[in-house]
Amino acid sequence: MIQRKQTIFLFLAAVFGILSLCMQLAAVSYEGMTTWRIFSLWAIGQNNASSFIPCPLFILMILSATLSVCTIFLYKRRPLQARLCMVNIFIMVLWYISMIVVSKQLAPDAANFHLEMASSFPAVVAILLFMARKGIQADERLVRAADRIR
To answer: What is the mean pLDDT of residues 47-52?
Structure first.
């Protein structure tokens, strides 16, 4: 039963996770000059200086995208699928916490921190995972009701 609507939600969660890996997440500027461009794996500063401070963002997003794809193929074990969706939502919360930590490390209080569109993708992933979990739970209730009738 891989053709369920929650499969689409899980697939889209993986796609949005991969998209957030490829795009710029934020920019830090001091007095109007951009000094750091933050991606998931590294931050590029002035004079092409690199920093791997955002590396936890990359690790968490890779873990989330991989878990979303793996969850798709566990369709015969719906309770495990629902638990993995909750674990994945927790990973997205950890992603935002680590984004706050990275922003505090790269941007002191005097700096301007500008979020890009890709930094909202983990929230979209969390919403899609929540919708997938609801669909999985509905399927589980339907299967249990059918078992009671037999």
So the answer is: 73
